[in-house]
Structure prediction request, 163 residues.
Amino acid sequence: MAIKKVEIERFSVTSSRPFREVLETLQAALGHPDPRVFRENVAAAKTFAELEKVVHDALGPSGFMEFARFDFGVVLRKRMESAPQTVRLVLGNPLIMTRMVMHAPDAGSYAPVTILIDERRDGVHLSYDRMASFLAPYGNSEALKVARGLDAKIEALLTDAAR
Prediction:
């Protein structure tokens, strides 16, 4: 049995915009494929070029697609009426993930990525745990290069949504 210690870097930006506007901005930047149809199309692709087309067709303007959404605020408000809004988005790009996993198989544990959007007293926080920090302990420079590129794209997406 092996245990690897991973130190995580969290990127966070705070917006003065209303929660709904921030979430709508993110939503507009992401692709929202039907999960069943997307899986069928991925499975039906005969070549990598066909797979790339399936993925590109599912991506939003940001180059990412939404895989899942967890609205914690709905659950919290069942217990406390005035609970803040909190949503966790799971998003990514399978082609970027593939490039990382080719060099560091454990990258598959961290992709797709998670974005947390939550209301606090000082504004709406958008937070992301950097992929490069997850992959740093594995020591693969190619995987880290891809991860840093992913981090830059996600951080730009969150910064734009916060404006």
